[in-house]
Amino acid sequence: xxxxxxxxxxxxxxxxxxxxxxxxxxxxxxxxxxxxxxxxxxxxxxxxxxxxxxxxxxxxxxxxxxxxxxxxxxxxxxxxxxxxxxxxxxxxxxxxxxxxxxxxxxxxxxxxxxxxxxxxxxxxxxxxxxxxxxxxxxxx
Length: 140
Known about the structure:
With 140 residues, this protein is α+β, with helices and mostly antiparallel strands. Helices cover 33% and strands 29% of the residues. The protein is globular.
């Protein structure tokens, strides 16, 4: 069994900070934030190998899936990266008409549910940068 399979054999969580907008160049976000994204796409790009096209642009930076029972800890890993970038985030949001989202993906194994709570720092950051939160739960 590989290390990845071992890591994913128990409840695990991944977070992504996603920037979306009608139409923008992901390289602009990369340059301004001085961060390499985990994934990007442009409005009009094909979705996988199908005929459908993306109807918005996106730039996202993800944590790795990690065996944990604390959503709060995973979100704080994202905040450690983006809190120092608040000025840049606010500038980009206004100038490019962007939306920000923190997406949390929770894979629940063997009914081992994580604690889902948000500390004051998370709430304050999300309020200051106008960030929405999205939680996806998968029971495996």
